[in-house]
Each structure stands twice: as structure tokens, then as C-alpha cells.
Amino acid sequence: MKKLVIAAALAASALAAQAAEGVQTIRAEVNGMVCAFCAQGIEMKMTKQAATQAVFVDLKNKVVAVQLKPGQTMALDKFKADIKDAGYDVVKAEYVPQTVAAIKAQYVKK
């Protein structure tokens, strides 16, 4: 039974890794978000971008994650400009090979 459980866990890990392969997500730390309305505004603005597949905004941790559609790109400068135009400051932004769901799971369980 233990071998079956371990095998299933390894298979699930392999599938998750394959699913995340090729995923391009921008993860950023954003200052200036102080309320749910702020978070909702950023989420709406980023969702309207043609390259966006999924968005996660964590108000408490001041994190914004934008997963891009397969084959799509978004320059970090454009991402930062969009956030700045919405009235917020990007402290740090980087591409990460994680889905928005995986990033959300990191913060939701805290």
C-alpha cells in the first residue's frame, strides 16, 4: 500500500512539473495596495491584457502574479508601467516558471 501511495505521489509530481513546463508568469511585489478595491483594480487591469491567462493578487503580502497565455509574452517594463499607471509601485518583478495556481497555493496556506 505504501508503495502505491508513493508511486501515486511521484506520478502527481511529474505531471505537475510537466504542466508547469513552459509556463511563464510574472510575479511582483507591489506597494500601495491598501484595500480590497486596490487589489480588484489591479486584477481587472491585468486581466484585460491580451497576453494574460490568469491573475492572482494577494493584498496581505502585496504580491501580484500574472500568468501569460502559452506563446504570449509581456515585457517586465510594460508590466511595471501598467501597475504604475494604476497608481502603485512595483518593488520587484521577475519571471517565474510557476502557474498562478501554484503561487496562490503558497500564500493561501499561510
From TrEMBL:
UniProt xrefs under InterPro entries: HMA_dom, HMA_dom_sf
Gene3D superfamilies documented for this protein: 3.30.70.100
SUPFAM superfamilies membership: HMA, heavy metal-associated domain (SSF55008)
Signal peptide: 1-19
UniProt keyword terms in alphabetical order: Signal
TM stretches of this protein: none
CDD domains per UniProt: HMA
UniProt superkingdom: Bacteria
Residue span, HMA domain: 24-91
UniProt name for this protein: Heavy-metal-associated domain-containing protein
Species in which this protein is naturally found: Piscinibacterium candidicorallinum
